[in-house]
Each structure stands twice: as C-alpha cells, then as structure tokens.
Amino acid sequence: MKITVTVNAADYTRVVEPRLLLIHFLRDDLRLTGSHWGCDTSNCGACVVWLNETPIKSCTVLAVMADGQRITTVEGLAAAHRLDPVQEAFAACHGLQCGFCTPGMMMTARWLLDSNPDPTEEEVREAISGQVCRCTGYENIVRSVLWAAKHEGGDHSTGGDTDEPRLRAAPP
Amino acid sequence: MNHAYGPLPRKEDARFIRGQGTFVDDIVLPGMLYGAILRSPLAHARIVSVDANAARAHPSVVAVLTGDDLAERGLAWMPTLLGDVQAVLATDKVRFQGQEIAFVVATDRYAARDALELIVVDYEQLPPLVDALTALDSGAPVVRDDLPGGNRIFDWTAGDKAATDAVFAAADVVVGCDMLYPRSHPAPLETCGAVADYDVVSGKLTLWSTSQAPHAHRTLYASLTGLPEHKIRIVSPDLGGGFGAKVPIYPGYLCAITASMLTGRPVKWVEDRSESLMSTTFARDYHMHGEIAATADGEILGLRARVLADHGAFNAAAQPSKFPAGFFHIFTGSYQTRAAYCEVTGVYTNKAPGGVAYSCSFRITEAVYLVERLTDMLARELGLDPAELRMRNLLRPEQFPYTCPTGWEYDSGDYPRALQLALDMAGYAELRREQAERRARGEYMGIGLSFFTEGVGAGPRGHMDIMGLAMADGADLRIHPTGNAVLAVSVQTQGQGHETTFAQLVAQELGLSPDDVDVVHGDTDRTPFGLGTYGSRSTPVSGAAAVVAARKVRERARLVAAVMLEVDADDLEWLDGMWRVKGDPDQALGIVEIARAAHSALELPPGIEGHLDASAVYNPPNLTFPFGAYICVTDVDPGTGEVKVRRFIAVDDCGVRINPMIVEGQVHRGIADGIGIALMQAISFDENGNCLGGSFMDYLLPTSLECPSPELGMTVTPSPHHPVGAKGIGESATVGAPPAVVNSVVDALAPFGVTHADMPLTPANVWLAIQGRPIRTDLAAS
Fold first, then answer.
1. B110 at A interface, C-beta within 8 A
2. Is B274 part of the contact surface with chain A (CB cutoff 8 Å)?
3. Does A89 lie in the same domain as A131?
4. Is 0.80 topped by the overall pTM?
5. In Å, what is the CA distance from B491 to each residue of B5, B457, B569, B655?
6. CATH architecture of B24-126+194-242+246-270
7. What is d(CA B444, CA B437) in angstroms, rounded to the nearest whole number?
8. Whether A39 and A8 share a structural domain
C-alpha cells in the first residue's frame, strides 16, 4: 500500500506491506533509529512516538494506520538544533544510562509537560508507568522530568539545582 | 586533590538524548540479509527430521541452515564458557523449549519470519525433566544422553566439613530452612543480536554484536570457525543494557557468521523478546538448604549450606572456570563465624542454559540471600532484634584484611559504621515503634535489613580464567602532541558510563580536564586485549589499568620535563597536576607542554623515543570487597497479599567514588532489580517444560510505580590494593536488595507465624503464605 506520513514535519511517501509495524517503518524504511523496539507485547515503551499529539507505542500501530497523520519521534524533539528542556534534563539529572528507553521516555515526558506543566512526582511516575527502564530504577528519570518542568521557557542554564544533597555520608 | 573526580555529566549522553546512539539493530549494511531462528516448541524431543525445502523455495529466502548443514562444517555444537558443549542448531534432539533448530536468511526481516513457518520438523516427544529436585532420581529423564554422567554436572564443596559439624553439634541454637532463589532473566531492554559481515576478498570477518566481552568473543570465534584471530574484528557498539546477558556467545551469533560466510553478504540477526527470555542466559535457580548455628545469646558460630543448582540443558554459565558454583562459598557474608561448609551439586534439566548472569557477582547474590535470610530467622528464634544481632556479629574494622572460613580475603571494611548510618537514616527505633502501633491496629508493616559483602573485579589471573583466558585487562593511552589523550580499554560499557568515568581517572592522573580525554572501547581492532565487563570488574580491573598506564605516562613526562627544565628528574615532584621543581614549585610543567616537547626537536633523554604513550595490563592482586547496609520498609495487605515498598534505605561503600552521580545511578538500578526479583520477576515452568515467563506479559518487571525513591547513604573505605582505592559498584544493590525486601515482607507477616516464603513474593504467593500454604514458585501452580 502507498502511504504518506508526516514525520518530524517532513512528508514521506512509501509503498509498504499492510502488516508493517510503524516502528519498523520508522527504523527500517525511514532510517530514524532513535525509536527502539524492545518487546513484542506493548509492555516496554522503547518505541513510544507521537501520533499527532499523543504518545503511542509504535510497535502496536501499523504503518498504514499512520497514513495522512503526523508522527513525531525523538529526532524531532530538538527544534532547530536547540535541545528540548526534556533532553537537557535527562543529561543534567543522569536520567539515562544505556540510553535504550530514553527516546520513548522523553517523548512521554514532553507530552506530559505540554498537558501538565507543573506535575507532581506521582503524576510523573504515573505518566511513565507504561514504559520500562532497566538501568535507572526510574528515580533519575522522575527527577529529570521535574527538572525539565522547572526549566521550561528558556531557563536551561545549568543542572545546578540537581546538586541538592541527596546522599548522606557517614561522619568520619 | 581529586580535581577530576565528581558528579560530571556524562559524555555519552549527547548522542543518546538525540536518539543518535548506535545499537546493533541500527546498523544497516549494503546488501544486508536478515536471519531468523526456528525454535523448538517442545522441551524434550528427538528430532526425526527437519524439512526446509519449502522454506528454501520462498522467493525472499537466500539460505536456510539446519543442524545438519552446520554439522558438515563442524559447527553444530559449540563449546560453552564452562567446558561443556551446546548445540548451535539441534541435530539429535531438543533439550529445552525455545532451542535453536534452523536459521533462515532472507531479504527482509518479515520474510525470514514467514519462511520459518514453512519448515517442517518431525519430533518424537520425550518426557521432560522439569523439577530439578528429581534430576538425580533413578528413572529421571536423561537430558544429556551425549554425555556419560547422567544429569549430574558437578559436585563441589568448600570449607571444613568436620569443623563445621563440630561447631553445629555444640551450638545452643541451630536454625535451618529450604529456600529457592528462583530463575530470573536479566532482560536488558535491548535484546541480543549481531550483524556479521564476512569479506570474501580479504577473508576478514567483522561482527557487530551485543557483547560485554568483545576480545574474549574474538578468541572464541577464532577457535570455533577456524578463521585466524587477526581476521576477526568484533565491534560492540552501544549496548542497551547487558547485566550479564551479553557475556556468553549464543547460537544466533554463530548462525549469522556462518550465513555471512556462506552467502558472502552481511547478515543481521536480532532476537525478539520471547526468544530472549526463553533461550538466552537465565540467572540464579538455586535450591538451597541453609543452616546457621549460634550461642543462646546470639553469637554466630557456623554456617552450612547444601545447594542443588539447576543449570538447564547445557552448562553454559559464564564465570571463572575454577569455580563451578561461582563465588557462592563467600556465603558466610559479613559475619564472624568459626566454621562454614557448603556443598553444591549442579544438574541438567530441560530448561534454557545459563546460570550466571544478571548482576550476580558470580553467585554472591545467592550467597548473600542465604545468609541474610538465616540471620533474620536466627534473630526471630532468639527473640533478638535483627539489627542488634547483625551489629553483634559483624566483622570489626580491625579484623581487615579478613580471611573468611572458606578462604576469601576481604580487603577492607568498616561494617558497623555502615549499618549504624543506615539505622540512623531509617530512624530505626521509631520505625519499630510505628510497626508495633500498626500491628496493634491490625496493619502489617515490615522492616527488613540486609548487610552484604560483595567480591568484585576478577582476577587475579592466577586463579581466574574463562576458557583459559586469564582475567586481566589492558589499557593503551596515547597522548597527542597538543596534550589531548585517547584511552583505549578492553571493557565494554552497557550504560555504566565508562566514557566519562575512565576519562576522569586519566584526567586526574595527568592534570588534564576530562574533556581532554577520549575513551575508545568496544572494537577489538582499536583496543587492547582484556576479558570485558561483568562481575563489576570494569573499574577494579580496567580502571586500574588506565591509571597504571597514566602513571607510566606521567613518569615518562617527568624525564622529558627534567630535560626541559634542565634539572635532574629526581628533583621534580608531581604536585597539583604538574611536574614541579622541589623547593621552587613555580618552575613547573604540565602534560600539555611536555607532550608538545616530546614530539619536538628537543633532544630526548634515554628511554624516551619520542612520545609519552604508554600501555598497561592490570592483573588485580585480589578482588575488591564493596559492602553495604540496606533497610526496606514495606506494607502488606493481608487480604490481597499485595506488597508495597514504602521506603528503601541503602548505605553503600564502594571505596573511592570517581563519579558519584554514576555510582548512585548504579545503586538505583540495583534496588529496582532487587524489588523486581523479590516481588515479581521469576521464570517458572509447567510440567511439560513450557516456559511460563516468555514475554513481558508474564515476566513482570518493576515500573515507576513499584520503585520507591531510594534514600542513599555512603561510607568510604578505600580498597588498599586498587591504585585509586576504588571498588566495583555495578552489582552491589542487586546482591543486597532482594534479602532486604524479603526480610521486610516476612517481618510484616510475623503475626501470621510466617518465617519464610520463597521469591517472587507476588500477591498470590504472599496470600498463600499467610494461609500457611507456601508453594514451589519454580513450578506451575497446581
């Protein structure tokens, strides 16, 4: 089938098999490999991208279902080479280790902050609860999203306020 | 002054936050083909025939490999890392559900999967051996009829049996328990995969693969395929986690290599999630009986353990070959004991092979779980507080270096200080008061402690090897004329941040900024030989190699600086990142100036040929022994059996912290692992040997809602033998957290008379334990 999908503001027309998953369309056909495939069962969320304004698991959507729709991937997160506050936050707060879940986590975080600019920790945890990270125990992902919320609108200068004492040392 | 150490943001993040990491499945080569594996639906069956003709006729299929095809090339079986053999593609029978039978190579990944459906396998079903506890019974199905020893793989003992029995016979109190450390899977978010590219002209094989040990893999592939080792290049690109799952070599890698050599085209193979959970290396699966002996006032006297280790269908654990049960015999843990003895028997079953994986420090996970559960049971028996019992029996700082009854020499520690800090952070006395109040109200709150001693950073090479390759690691350090440095190391990050931490190590030694140091890893053509990253060995071994190489550079720089300053080299001292004239510290030169001079027309001193570059191979004199005290607070709903982890306090001592931010991240991960393993992650099997944890629908991983915000503390007791006093931290929390969680849940259930329940403590298992009906969690619920 011939489909036209707008991905990160560019139009792509391709002939695809009806059974092709959106994640494979993005990764194999368009070579946008930032979104990852991690499970077969829509549990892990490494493949989260936006379908129009909504995060979806792209392993559970057929490419043909995206015909005529807008897809945003991690490659579209930074606008004009300027990092999104969410991207800065993940680096500032050590919100990633292996980096495999990170694109999906960031796409969900961006969506959350667009709809809820000042989320509580519980709201952040709820928002990312459909996605799996095997490296961070989620702690620094949560901190990253909260940091991004604080630094939206241009105040991206430093990660300084992540240095608040979190670690208790024994007296010598 | 440690100018370069500290919570430096990671160098590697720049690519990952942009979605520009390069993982194996991101690699596409011109003309690349896609492989897919046909797997056995049965746990135990004789293969009567494999008919791949219809698959070969599929228009998109380029080749099909069966066991017979590999047998013609001598590749149907491959050696495992522990001296056993494993079928690459089955020829005689299948021995676990998910075992590899055929490999289809097609022009796209969907077609390869389609063609699998066209292969017809005729099986003659055999009774499977599922329950490891029956493996040695007469009449049990024999898994390995290709071997003479029946289902027994090994019997192994450590410690002094007679002395231990004597201590037990004289003890006031003996407490014992059967406990299972269930089979789990590391489940890195990126599954295993490879792209094999054999160049028929040069005869060179390049293999991009998910490998935590690229150099060791190169040597293995050379001996397996017959390709000369200099014609093999292993590239391990960005890895989406590993945790031990990417240490062994798997049949899929070898199939991709063979298919590429056969077709002359690059071949990609990436396993799917079910394939990963069902066939690549599992972890744990130890059926343990432990006993602890003590005086009536709570002095621990001795420990005994008897273990039945389920190794699955092939003995394919990845660990030092001298130790068939890994480091399990460190099971006396952090306590003084007069004697200890353990026996471990390994058996084959019709389950996936593996056994050492998942951040377990070669079975220290199982050892710590055993002793920490027993310590809690002893406290209950004696009516002592578990914190008090631990404090009484912990090793004292003045006892280090301490040799435990089974022979390990712990390098350094101050255990009571770490436990006291954890108790203070938790507000322990107040927690116990709250627990008493809640119990009076019919609420079930648990407080669980664990204290662990880890042993990480293998070798020494004289004691530890894998397939004859001694566990030492190299580092090459180049200093460019402008003073920038490139460090090449043999270990392989899977998210641990080596590119940052190792740059900090070198920068610290040479007075450079970490920005001026690039770290190269994961490419055997560009890095020195070494055994790779697992068992938390990167910083203890490879980090040490980097420091030793940097110190060699520094000494070379001293000789050059002496010429430049026209002084004797002995008159120079290294101070604040520069070589300075003693007594005249303003006369000083840094590495940047010295490097330029070393490449200039300056007449160089004897022994300096024209640059500052240096190499080192580090053979660790001993393991490093990090330790920690953990406290887990849970609330249990007795109606549903649901466990909520309310707080998790973790005090870790990993010696000197090079990048504390990365260290804390490692601890966060391990705590999440500990909660997952204790509460939900387990792979069980039904009576036919069907894997019941074959997807993330069934093999449950903790999410952001199950993981609390950890409360971290630290003490710093440097390792006396590591060049900068660092110890490994990668697995501490995975080792220490599960017993804290289980101890907490069992503590919560004390009013019901529950003294033990096996992991995973799912709501159903907890509810059954409350009813006094504990179950075998390794078998399907009947």
1. yes
2. yes
3. yes
4. yes
5. 20, 12, 34, 20
6. Alpha-Beta Complex (3.90)
7. 10
8. yes
